[in-house]
Amino acid sequence: MTTTTQEHQCDVLVIGSGAAGLSLALRLAPTHRVIVLSKGPLSEGATLYAQGGIAAVFDEQDSVESHVEDTQIAGGGICDTDVVDFIARNAKDCVQWLIDGGVPFDQEDSDDETPRYHLTREGGHSHRRILHTADATGMAVQNSLQDNVRQHPNITLLERHNALDIITRKKVGLGGLIMC
Ligand SMILES: Cc1cc2nc3c(=O)[nH]c(=O)nc-3n(C[C@H](O)[C@H](O)[C@H](O)COP(=O)(O)OP(=O)(O)OC[C@H]3O[C@@H](n4cnc5c(N)ncnc54)[C@H](O)[C@@H]3O)c2cc1C
Questions:
Q1: Which of 11, 55, 75, 154 has its CA 20 to 30 A from that of 30?
Q2: Residue 20: what are its φ and ψ, rounded to 5°?
Q3: What's the CATH superfamily of 8-50+139-180?
Q4: Helix, strand or coil for residue 68?
Q5: Mean pLDDT score of the chain, rounded to an integer?
Q6: Strands 130-131 and 163-169
Q7: Do 102 and 147 meet the contact criterion of CB atoms below 8 Å apart?
Q8: In this predicted model, what pLDDT tens digit does every residue of 80-138 receive, in sequence order?
Q9: Where in the chain are the domains?
Q10: CA 46 / ligand 1 centre spacing (Å)
Q11: How far is the CA of 137 from the centre of ligand 1 (A)?
């Protein structure tokens, strides 16, 4: 059996190519050289299979406070309040970022040019606040993020590369990763 060793250089290594990894890569790519690893095909992860949609306060009758309260109740009161608050407060901007990146969330007819997103109401939510793309929201998000990372000159994608171990050498400020 022959083994080959390849060396890659980057400013930021992102392990994982789901919604989290690809969003982070796209956010960093304007100022950093980014490598994204995925242990299987780029699309293979939980994101692709997510169906229902993403919660964010888009309805005028809804509020961030209500989203926080619903989340705390659904979490049995043990969720970190700062984290829940941060996510609920930033959800709309993050969903808007996905929309701007091309995710085709379902819309309703609108009287003017302003898009009106179709919102569903899922268990635990007291308001309609779930944006979705039919019943394949994760696939729509994954496909859009993939299209965008593939086009970015500062992002290198290494599919079927499994991260095994991270080596840190604090004294000389170097880091490394063993992968196969
Ligand atoms: C069936 C289903 C339905 C869902 N429905 C919803 C929903 O309606 N709404 C909602 O908000 N959430 C839903 N979720 C949850 C949601 O999909 C996840 O919370 C979200 O996709 C997680 O994104 P992620 O990027 O963190 O992980 P993932 O999308 O799972 O990505 C993980 C990545 O890590 C990579 N990886 C892992 N280990 C290694 C390694 N050692 N080396 C290299 N790469 C590695 C994988 O290859 C993959 O690319 C659902 C989940 C499932 C499974």
A1: 55
A2: -65, -50
A3: FAD/NAD(P)-binding domain (3.50.50.60)
A4: helix
A5: 93
A6: unpaired
A7: yes
A8: 999 999 999 999 999 999 999 999 999 998 888 889 999 999 999 999 999 999 999 99
A9: 8-50+139-180, 52-135
A10: 3
A11: 13
Output the residue whose Cα is nearest ligand 1's atom 4.
Answer: 50
Minimum CA distance residue for ligand 1 atom 21: 47
Rounded distance, CA 53 to CA 51, Å?
A: 6
Of all residues in the chain, the percent with pLDDT exceeding 90 is: 82
Higher-pLDDT residue of 85 and 175 is 85
pLDDT at residue 165, rounded to an integer: 85
Is 176 a pocket residue for ligand 1 (Cβ < 6 Å)?
no
Structure tokens at 144: 């859009």
> What's phi and psi for 89, nearest 5 deg?
-70, -35
Ligand 1 geometric centre to CA of 143 (Å): 14
Task: Please compute the mean of the pLDDT values over residues 37-60 and round it to a whole number.
Answer: 96
Mean pLDDT on 130-159: 98
Q: Is the CB of 47 under 6 A from ligand 1?
A: yes
Among all chains, which residue has been given the structure tokens 């299987």? 40
Q: Is the CB of 20 under 6 A from ligand 1?
A: yes
